[in-house]
Amino acid sequence: MLDKNKKNHNFKKKFRLILIFIVAIYLMFQIVPVLQATKLKTYVVTNAALEIVEEVEAIVFKEEKVYKSDITGEIVYYIQEGERVGARDKIAEIPINSNTKKLKDELQDIEEQIENLSNTNLSTEIFKNDIEKNQQNIDNLIKRIGEAVINKEYKEVANLRLELNEKLDKQKALTGQTGYSANRLQKLKDRRKEIITEMENLNFIYNAQISGIVSYSIDGLEMIYTPNKLADFYPKNFEIMDENLLDINARKNVKAGEPIYKIIDNYEWYIAGMITNKEIIQFLNNKSSVYIRLDDSDHEIKTEIFKVNSEDDKAVLVLRLNKLLYEFHKKRFVNLKIILDKFEGLKIPTESIVVNNGIHGVYIKGTGGITKFRAIEILGQSGEYTIVKELSGSFESPMQDSEDGKTRKIYYLSIYDEVLIDGNKVTEGEIIN
Question: Which partner from 58, 101, 142, 385 sits 20 to 30 angstroms from 396, CA to CA?
């Protein structure tokens, strides 16, 4: 009897241990996914634009000519860096001898005297009414003198002449046109003309031979990166050379043979960049234009695809531009961003995308933290992010492994949904804390 009770007791003990073990295993399988789910990161869906951009270092080709000094001396510039000039506009001059300074000082003194004498003419406008009234009096006196002469009233004539002389003197004072001031003003103007002619003969003057943008930044590459070489500019020739940039207008004195300025044709300029991606090369070969951005600028520029010089698996893309050179006229090398495509829609992390029963989608954190599958239609991808089409509603999809044609309703992703970034670590119906 005792042995039987003992056996029953041992059996119950073993049964309890087995039951506890089974419950523990069950709980572990239920808890582990929840613990994993609590570590998952989410991303809130927003509307955004995404660009597919190819970024390369590129070379700027410009039609430019460097002009050098014919003599040694002190140079004076009249045009600012980046300013556009027309043909024959005066850019700089170099005095041939020291007498130029003396002539300049004399010219400045003459200009001041002319201005002072010319200001006296302002009285003509200021005293216009007085001048007109006094002239009427003069005309009236002349008429009265004539009548007095006819009537042989010679004493009256003498008195009227005295009064007329007073009026004439007053008129000269009002107008300021005394014989001396008028003569002096004319002599000063004649001398000014003589000095200007004399100075032109004493200075070496540099006038623009062509129209364009004036620049004093010389890099020594003006004759290397020229537009006439672009037709044969292939990957084997592509080289970004060292530039030795000099701002030559900082100098006051120049020597004969030294560069003093250059003029750049501002109507057309070119940018050349190396492309190593076969798909992009093929894409560009089928295009006539493309939008770009340069350096750190956010401004999009529409450019003409001038040439795609292919060689093996590489190509040199040559773009032609006809505007904005004034912003980049000092640049020889630029960071070129080629905008290959642009998408607008819902932005999600690329790694969140999964394929469920042949349908591309993502898992979102739904009501109560329960994971739900949402379908997507991909528009474009670039790096970490993907743009998907903003759709609404749902559609019916065949259930996986269904043999009787049963379907289930699949909803599309919506703005502000909370997407699970690592979609491959969850399944539908899990609880996310």
Answer: 385
